[in-house]
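User: New here, any thoughts?
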Amino acid sequence: MTTVLIVDDQALQRLGFSMLLEQHADLTLIGEATHGAEAVRMAAELKPDVVLMDVRMPGMDGIEATRRIIESGGRSRILVLTTFDLDEYAYDALRAGASGFLLKDAMPDELVAGIRAVAAGDAVISPGLTRKLIDAFSSRLPGHTPEQQRQLARLTNREREVLTAIATGWSNTEIAERFSLAESTVKSHVSSILTKIGVRDRVQAVIFAYDTGLVRPA
Protein backbone atom coordinates (compact mmCIF):
# COMPACT_ATOMS: atom_id res chain seq x y z
CA MET A 1 0.00 0.00 0.00
CA THR A 2 1.36 3.42 -1.01
CA THR A 3 0.20 6.40 1.03
CA VAL A 4 -0.13 9.77 -0.69
CA LEU A 5 -0.36 13.37 0.49
CA ILE A 6 -1.81 15.84 -2.04
CA VAL A 7 -0.55 19.44 -1.92
CA ASP A 8 -2.39 21.94 -4.11
CA ASP A 9 -4.11 25.25 -3.43
CA GLN A 10 -6.91 24.52 -5.91
CA ALA A 11 -9.79 22.50 -4.44
CA LEU A 12 -10.92 21.18 -7.81
CA GLN A 13 -7.42 19.91 -8.57
CA ARG A 14 -7.22 18.14 -5.20
CA LEU A 15 -10.61 16.56 -5.83
CA GLY A 16 -9.51 15.25 -9.21
CA PHE A 17 -6.36 13.69 -7.75
CA SER A 18 -8.27 12.13 -4.86
CA MET A 19 -10.86 10.60 -7.20
CA LEU A 20 -8.05 9.13 -9.28
CA LEU A 21 -6.38 7.58 -6.22
CA GLU A 22 -9.67 6.04 -5.09
CA GLN A 23 -9.72 3.94 -8.25
CA HIS A 24 -6.55 2.07 -7.28
CA ALA A 25 -6.52 -0.31 -4.34
CA ASP A 26 -2.76 0.02 -3.81
CA LEU A 27 -2.89 3.82 -3.41
CA THR A 28 -4.31 5.51 -0.32
CA LEU A 29 -4.90 9.23 0.17
CA ILE A 30 -3.98 10.13 3.75
CA GLY A 31 -4.21 13.91 3.60
CA GLU A 32 -4.59 17.12 1.62
CA ALA A 33 -2.63 20.34 2.12
CA THR A 34 -3.44 23.70 0.57
CA HIS A 35 -0.02 25.36 0.88
CA GLY A 36 3.61 24.58 1.54
CA ALA A 37 3.73 25.18 5.28
CA GLU A 38 0.77 22.88 5.79
CA ALA A 39 2.45 20.29 3.56
CA VAL A 40 5.62 20.32 5.68
CA ARG A 41 3.60 19.88 8.88
CA MET A 42 1.40 17.11 7.48
CA ALA A 43 4.35 15.27 5.94
CA ALA A 44 6.03 15.20 9.35
CA GLU A 45 2.86 13.98 11.07
CA LEU A 46 1.55 11.51 8.48
CA LYS A 47 4.83 10.32 6.92
CA PRO A 48 3.35 9.64 3.46
CA ASP A 49 5.25 7.50 0.97
CA VAL A 50 4.68 10.08 -1.77
CA VAL A 51 3.82 13.78 -1.73
CA LEU A 52 2.14 15.14 -4.87
CA MET A 53 3.51 18.68 -4.73
CA ASP A 54 2.17 21.67 -6.63
CA VAL A 55 4.82 24.32 -7.29
CA ARG A 56 3.02 27.65 -7.34
CA MET A 57 1.05 28.24 -4.15
CA PRO A 58 0.48 31.28 -1.92
CA GLY A 59 2.74 31.62 1.09
CA MET A 60 5.36 28.88 1.16
CA ASP A 61 5.62 27.48 -2.36
CA GLY A 62 6.26 23.90 -3.38
CA ILE A 63 10.00 24.42 -3.80
CA GLU A 64 10.59 25.50 -0.22
CA ALA A 65 8.18 22.85 1.05
CA THR A 66 10.08 20.18 -0.90
CA ARG A 67 13.39 21.40 0.49
CA ARG A 68 12.13 21.32 4.08
CA ILE A 69 10.53 17.89 3.76
CA ILE A 70 13.71 16.41 2.27
CA GLU A 71 15.97 18.13 4.82
CA SER A 72 13.86 16.72 7.64
CA GLY A 73 15.28 13.31 6.79
CA GLY A 74 11.91 11.63 6.46
CA ARG A 75 11.20 8.84 4.01
CA SER A 76 8.62 10.76 1.97
CA ARG A 77 9.42 11.20 -1.70
CA ILE A 78 8.23 14.21 -3.67
CA LEU A 79 6.55 14.11 -7.08
CA VAL A 80 6.32 17.66 -8.41
CA LEU A 81 3.35 18.65 -10.55
CA THR A 82 3.27 21.83 -12.59
CA THR A 83 1.22 23.39 -15.36
CA PHE A 84 4.20 24.51 -17.42
CA ASP A 85 6.74 22.45 -19.37
CA LEU A 86 10.30 23.39 -18.39
CA ASP A 87 9.08 25.66 -15.63
CA GLU A 88 12.19 26.87 -13.80
CA TYR A 89 10.35 26.35 -10.54
CA ALA A 90 10.18 22.64 -11.33
CA TYR A 91 13.93 22.59 -11.90
CA ASP A 92 14.47 24.27 -8.54
CA ALA A 93 12.22 21.68 -6.89
CA LEU A 94 14.30 18.87 -8.41
CA ARG A 95 17.44 20.46 -7.04
CA ALA A 96 15.69 20.74 -3.69
CA GLY A 97 15.37 16.95 -3.67
CA ALA A 98 12.20 16.04 -5.55
CA SER A 99 12.18 12.60 -7.13
CA GLY A 100 10.09 13.41 -10.16
CA PHE A 101 8.43 15.99 -12.34
CA LEU A 102 5.17 15.64 -14.26
CA LEU A 103 2.87 18.08 -15.97
CA LYS A 104 -0.62 18.43 -14.54
CA ASP A 105 -2.10 17.50 -17.91
CA ALA A 106 -0.41 14.09 -17.81
CA MET A 107 -2.71 11.17 -18.51
CA PRO A 108 -4.18 9.52 -15.37
CA ASP A 109 -2.26 6.30 -15.97
CA GLU A 110 0.97 8.32 -16.25
CA LEU A 111 0.34 9.97 -12.89
CA VAL A 112 -0.49 6.65 -11.22
CA ALA A 113 2.60 5.04 -12.72
CA GLY A 114 4.64 8.02 -11.54
CA ILE A 115 3.40 7.69 -7.97
CA ARG A 116 4.21 3.99 -7.93
CA ALA A 117 7.65 4.52 -9.43
CA VAL A 118 8.60 7.27 -6.99
CA ALA A 119 7.35 5.17 -4.07
CA ALA A 120 9.59 2.34 -5.29
CA GLY A 121 12.63 4.62 -5.28
CA ASP A 122 12.78 5.39 -8.99
CA ALA A 123 12.79 8.80 -10.62
CA VAL A 124 9.96 10.02 -12.81
CA ILE A 125 11.21 12.20 -15.64
CA SER A 126 11.60 11.11 -19.23
CA PRO A 127 15.27 11.07 -20.33
CA GLY A 128 14.62 13.76 -22.94
CA LEU A 129 12.93 16.06 -20.45
CA THR A 130 15.76 15.52 -17.96
CA ARG A 131 18.27 16.73 -20.55
CA LYS A 132 16.09 19.71 -21.47
CA LEU A 133 15.68 20.74 -17.85
CA ILE A 134 19.40 20.56 -17.15
CA ASP A 135 20.39 22.25 -20.41
CA ALA A 136 17.81 25.02 -20.04
CA PHE A 137 19.18 26.09 -16.66
CA SER A 138 22.82 25.01 -16.98
CA SER A 139 24.00 28.57 -16.41
CA ARG A 140 22.66 28.30 -12.88
CA LEU A 141 24.51 25.10 -11.98
CA PRO A 142 26.89 25.76 -9.08
CA GLY A 143 30.43 24.45 -9.07
CA HIS A 144 31.08 21.14 -7.39
CA THR A 145 31.98 21.01 -3.74
CA PRO A 146 35.04 19.21 -2.29
CA GLU A 147 32.68 16.56 -0.88
CA GLN A 148 31.14 15.97 -4.30
CA GLN A 149 34.62 15.53 -5.75
CA ARG A 150 35.42 12.97 -3.07
CA GLN A 151 32.18 11.16 -3.81
CA LEU A 152 32.98 11.13 -7.52
CA ALA A 153 36.42 9.67 -6.77
CA ARG A 154 34.77 6.69 -5.03
CA LEU A 155 33.25 5.50 -8.29
CA THR A 156 34.89 2.79 -10.35
CA ASN A 157 35.58 3.44 -14.04
CA ARG A 158 32.53 1.38 -14.98
CA GLU A 159 30.34 3.29 -12.51
CA ARG A 160 31.52 6.58 -14.01
CA GLU A 161 30.55 5.29 -17.44
CA VAL A 162 27.13 4.27 -16.19
CA LEU A 163 26.61 7.60 -14.41
CA THR A 164 27.58 9.45 -17.60
CA ALA A 165 25.07 7.35 -19.52
CA ILE A 166 22.34 8.10 -16.96
CA ALA A 167 23.05 11.82 -17.21
CA THR A 168 22.94 11.58 -21.00
CA GLY A 169 19.43 10.20 -20.69
CA TRP A 170 19.92 6.49 -21.34
CA SER A 171 17.61 3.92 -19.83
CA ASN A 172 18.91 0.81 -18.05
CA THR A 173 18.13 -1.24 -21.15
CA GLU A 174 20.13 1.11 -23.38
CA ILE A 175 23.05 1.10 -20.93
CA ALA A 176 23.01 -2.70 -20.82
CA GLU A 177 23.10 -2.91 -24.61
CA ARG A 178 25.84 -0.28 -24.93
CA PHE A 179 28.20 -1.93 -22.45
CA SER A 180 27.14 -5.56 -23.11
CA LEU A 181 25.89 -6.02 -19.56
CA ALA A 182 22.91 -7.80 -18.08
CA GLU A 183 20.18 -5.36 -17.08
CA SER A 184 20.38 -6.71 -13.52
CA THR A 185 24.08 -5.77 -13.50
CA VAL A 186 23.23 -2.25 -14.62
CA LYS A 187 20.69 -1.96 -11.79
CA SER A 188 23.38 -3.04 -9.34
CA HIS A 189 25.74 -0.41 -10.72
CA VAL A 190 23.05 2.26 -10.43
CA SER A 191 22.32 1.29 -6.83
CA SER A 192 26.03 1.43 -5.98
CA ILE A 193 26.41 4.82 -7.67
CA LEU A 194 23.50 6.34 -5.75
CA THR A 195 24.97 5.08 -2.48
CA LYS A 196 28.50 6.30 -3.19
CA ILE A 197 27.48 9.80 -4.28
CA GLY A 198 24.84 10.11 -1.58
CA VAL A 199 21.73 10.82 -3.63
CA ARG A 200 18.21 9.40 -3.52
CA ASP A 201 17.47 8.67 -7.16
CA ARG A 202 18.43 9.04 -10.83
CA VAL A 203 17.28 12.65 -11.11
CA GLN A 204 19.61 13.71 -8.32
CA ALA A 205 22.36 11.60 -9.92
CA VAL A 206 21.94 13.56 -13.15
CA ILE A 207 22.28 16.86 -11.30
CA PHE A 208 25.37 15.50 -9.51
CA ALA A 209 26.93 14.53 -12.85
CA TYR A 210 26.45 18.06 -14.20
CA ASP A 211 27.55 19.73 -10.97
CA THR A 212 30.85 17.82 -10.94
CA GLY A 213 31.53 18.37 -14.63
CA LEU A 214 31.34 14.66 -15.45
CA VAL A 215 28.78 15.67 -18.08
CA ARG A 216 28.44 19.11 -19.59
CA PRO A 217 25.43 20.72 -21.30
CA ALA A 218 25.45 20.33 -25.06
The first helix runs from residue 11 to 22. The two ends are 41 Å apart (CA to CA). The mean pLDDT is 86.
